[in-house]
Amino acid sequence: MELKEVNSVYFIGIGGIGMSALARWFHAKKTLVAGYDKTESDLTKQLVEEGMDVHYEDQLDLIPEAFLEKEGTLVVYTPAVPADHMELNYFQDNGFHVKKRSEVLGMITDNHFTIAVAGTHGKTTTTSMIAHLLSVSRKGCSAFVGGIMTNTGTNLMIGDSNAPVVVEADEYDRSFMQLNPNYTIITSLDPDHLDIYGDETAMLDTYEEFVKKTPKDGKVLMYSEAGFKINPGNKYTSYAIRNGDAVADALRIVNGAFVFTYRYGMEKISDVYVELPGYHNVENALAAITVALDLGMDGKEIRKRMKTYAGVKRRFEYVYRSPHITLIDDYAHHPEEINAFLKSVRSLAGKRKITAIFQPHLYSRTRDFKAAFAEALDKSDEVILLDIYPAREEPIDGISSKTIFELMDNEKKVMVSKENLLDELDKHNLDIVLTIGAGDIDREVPKVAQYLKNKFEPKTEEEDE
Questions:
Q1: Which of 48, 95, 331, 368 is the most exposed place for a label (fewest CB within 10 A)?
Q2: Range from 34-48, 54-68, 381-395, 451-465 carrying the lowest mean pLDDT
Q3: 391 to 80, 170, 364: CA distances (angstroms)
Q4: Could you read off the pLDDT of 152-189 as tens digits, one per residue?
């Protein structure tokens, strides 16, 4: 089935960050769009407001009639959907055109110059930075981002038919192998998704295979440390704060922002501002700037645009701040991501007390990195551990949040259910509160924010009345 033959698209798992971007893309193309998701969320509510039909029960009679017409209907599903899902099995058993999300993304990008950003960490921020820069370039861009861009409030950009496409290349389920990038970026290569790959070697082999899909007239850009782990085949450009082809000279902090001179060979851009905490975001900016230069943007234009980049939701997002309390939310779900996040928080917090609320994501990831999670979380002053968010997985014997809890050296630690989280917070002397994880902890963040506001923000006389 070719895209031009598609009249309607039904998404199973429409509320996922990657799936919702595809849904928005088809909807913008005036294609009929509907779908199922397990639970209602702010994102699914937005899709409904934008004109898409979404339901939350796995029932065949809830599928809109227009999507039961086999001719012209494309069904898209995410690997997170269980194999016994009734709707998915109906479409598969009755000969509909059923494809994974990654296959459809491959179809969309096949006829465009494609910039693919892959890596175990940093790809969402880097993808959004590249999109933010290129959106004001002469060619513009389309972009599929694995997070909600703060500047635009969406995870999708749509340029004209000749614009390059920037896409976040997901390594889970080897999904990125469906892409054929002209420009490939690798941001990091720490072990992850070992439930899929088995071991780190197999993961690195797949990344190497992915990089080698880049044509000889294309370009590969890699974080310097990642370049030591795989053989990309052709020559590649490296980037890092100090040891790379593209580097950040004269790096300093000015009014809370990182400021540096971008340097790559004879190319130099002075006074580049990154208004995000964390040295890793300087490295993400180096990658984005290199791409923008390679695609013809002027250094002055890049400098001006970088200063307006506001980040991605749930990536070091200040949710609530007052003179007495701070709440920061982050999507970190791998030990290295937690390390980077806590390092950034500590650099800003100084001696202030840090309380980390962490929800582990996946039984398999908890099993594979339990010691590293414990070591990373020990960098907080105190830790509140929630139950594991299972996502697509069934429980694994002997693996729970207690697996991490027992390995931690920090004595100020506690395990609690989400339902009792606010009651637990009431027992703590709070200063800086962090919510960390990739599961459904984001649903708790507004509740925590409201609790903190009620506790730390004095009511006015009018409110009391």
A1: 95
A2: 451-465
A3: 7, 16, 11
A4: 999 999 999 899 999 999 888 888 899 999 999 999 99
